Amino acid sequence: MIRTAEVAVFAGLRGPARTFTYSVPDGVDARPGHLVRAGFGSRAVHGVVVGLGAPADRDVKLKPLDGLVHPVPLLSERQLALARWISATYRCGMADAVRAMLPPALAARARAGLPTARGERTEAIFAIAAAGHEALRTGVPRLGARQLVTLRALAAGAVSGDDLAQAGGTLEAAKSLASRGLATRGSRGVRRIPVEFRLSEDDPARDATATVAQAPAMAAINAAIGTGRGFLLHGVTGSGKTEVYLRATTEALSRGQGAIVLVPEIALTAQVVARFVARFGDRVALLHSALSAGERYDEWRRVLDGTADVVVGSRSALFAPLARVGLIVVDEEQEPTYKQESAPRYHAVDTALELGRLTGAAVVLGSATPRVVTYAAATSGALTLLTLPDRVMDLPLPKTTVVDLRLELKANNRSTLSGVLRAALKKTVAKGEQAILYLNRRGFATVVLCRDCGYVVPCAACEIPFALHADGRLVCHRCGQQVPRAPAVCPQCGSRRIRHLGVGTQRVEEDVRAAVPEARIARLDRDAVKAKGAHAAMYERMRSGEAQVIIGTQMVAKGFDLPGVSLVGIVNADTQLNLPDFTAAERTFELLTQVLGRSGRGTVGGQGVLQTYLPEHYAIRAAAAHDYATFAEQELMARKRFGYPPFGRLVLLQTAAAKEVTVERRATELAAALRAEARDDAEVLGPAPAFAAKRAGSYRAQLVLRGDHPTAVLDRVDVGAEWTVDVDPMTLLG
Ligand code: ADP
Ligand code: ZN
Ligand code: ZN
């Protein structure tokens, strides 16, 4: 008999790739979690042992494993269990799920097929030798000035190039001292330290008494460590959520367990990261995609070695090799970045809850504006709802005025600023306070909107807005109906400005200059944001008071915690509401809440002005009133009507091909096959062109399964490798 192993191979297989059975040669101690080398067809590939198989007869033809790439298993049984759950839930291959759990330096090497998997970086270090002490005492042999300084530095305890440089010596001099026998040379591993560790932040709340709302939340979370229970921590910005995370982490550590803290985007959540670093110092490991592969590897190693037990990072930090997990936090749980957009298409929130079940960790989902699916889970008891209703500093939320843009047009105001907003801006600048003007870019180029009356061209059958495609077609993304081009005049008001693609930050800047000539303006547009550090530079200009008015898109909604801002003007609130997507209202509410929350964070008080063509829409009204509960109630009613989550699950199927006919035929065939097998598990929507119907030269189409058990349909129909399968998508506009 021979031993066998199940291996998830990294062979670039598409679709729900299986694992493969290999024989384990004598002398190879393969265990689950080992990174191995193996033959695959005519190639040599890498893979991870996901389990050991039953012994097989010697005459069964199995390929043998070639050997271990790394002597210790890189993935624990618990990580493999999580990979199996991801593979089953999101219908991807084990290889995809497993690769997401390896640090990128190792995964990349595994793909490239390098024989070793070392990621450490080393530096030269030096120590003075006996002959060196002798030379310092006797002056023999004679040394040049640089060498003498360097030798003295070594005598005083300098070790590395950095130490030497500080004492006026050099690495070069140390090397020649070593070659003359006056010093000895060695090397040591260096940790590449992410820049976030250089952020300093004092930590005034460390010893503060918990607020009345925080105390029971903390008690509930502490009591759940070890139970695997999940919580929704619902509280407005400034209500003390981060402090709850910090103290729950302290509690987990005191019980000898670690914590994983997910944040949506490190660059925009630098303050949260800085507070973890301030409180837990070197016990923090940072894992996010903006780190270099080397930094990331080093941080990963520190977790594996047990020197770091507070992991802070983006969604893949869930896969850190933390030995004991007592707490998992997902901050801003509503953020779309928690869903991975390539295989494995997992959602970090659901995966965190599963990891909680596997490890017993308490799982805390935090948000001011949770997704309604999360809120529904918390009100139904699947999660425990913890609420922090007020800001810690007792600052009132800004009072918001809703301006109906249709009335502005009737009053013949064609500026991007309404009368109310213009007056508020003037007053704010005159008082020496600051303002943020926000434009919602998303959705602008994608619907046909009359700039004069707000009319949006809908599909006659579905009454949802048509999507405007780059080639000028209007397409309904629910039923697939198409119109060759948008009308030239508005059917409602006769205006010709119906195909206007909207205003940009530049246009708003001109209007602000005209209204308040003395204002110092900063503009944060798309291009500026791409430049590295632009966000931080703009923030600094506002913080220092150099700029008084900042005009920007989504970027100004995040991280701009400026006490001088007393006015937030939302130039156009509703462009995103017109997107034909089941999350459009939710995303609009979330963004508006976030942007309005930028006002009045200091002592000067704050106000908001919200300009819209849809002043009666529940998402607009609830955002202006800071009323999450009413929003959620209305939104859940709308979701229920159409069977959208949480009242049904979705699977998005997409395909692409160079020829439009190929895509259409493929989509029609699959739609028919799915309909034939759908039974009561799901309904089949489409086919329709994908929202970006043409991308990178190929045509794309999509189908949607919506129902109680959409993945059950996929058990009966093989969709084939031409299709991507996205279970629980965040949007149907991919
Ligand atoms: P959130 O994460 O909900 O935005 P934070 O935890 O950042 O809220 O709290 C807002 C502010 O209040 C921070 O400056 C924080 O240091 C402070 N803070 C939080 N909890 C307390 C407390 N119990 N006592 C005093 N200050 C606190
Ligand atoms: Zn339609
Ligand atoms: Zn019109």
Brief overview:
The chain has 734 residues and is an alpha/beta fold. It has 23 helices and 27 strands.
How big a fraction of the residues is strand? 15-25%
Q: How far is the first residue's CA from the last residue's CA?
A: 50 Å
How many structural domains does the protein architecture include? 5
Which fold name is given in CATH as the topology of the largest domain?
Rossmann fold
Binned, the helix content reads: 25-40%
Top-tier CATH class of the largest domain: Alpha Beta
CATH-level-4 superfamily name of the largest domain: P-loop containing nucleotide triphosphate hydrolases
Question: How are the secondary structure elements laid out?
Answer:
Elements (H helix, E strand, L loop, with lengths): L1 E8 L10 E5 L10 E6 L2 E14 L8 E4 L8 H13 L4 H6 L4 H9 L8 E8 L1 H9 L6 H11 L5 H6 L4 H9 L3 E8 L23 H11 L5 E6 L5 H14 L3 E5 L7 H11 L3 E4 L5 H12 L5 E4 L11 E7 L16 H12 L2 E6 L4 H9 L3 E5 L10 E6 H6 L8 H12 L3 E6 L27 E2 L5 E2 L6 E2 L21 H11 L5 E4 L1 H5 L3 H10 L5 E4 L12 E8 L11 H13 L10 E6 L5 H7 L3 H15 L6 E9 L2 H18 L5 E13 L2 E10 L2 H7 L6 E5 L7
Parallel strand pairs: 8-13, 8-14, 9-11, 9-12, 10-11, 12-13, 15-23, 16-21, 16-22, 20-21, 22-23
Antiparallel strand pairs: 1-2, 1-4, 3-4, 3-5, 6-7, 17-18, 18-19, 24-26, 24-27, 25-26
One zinc ion binds next to loops.
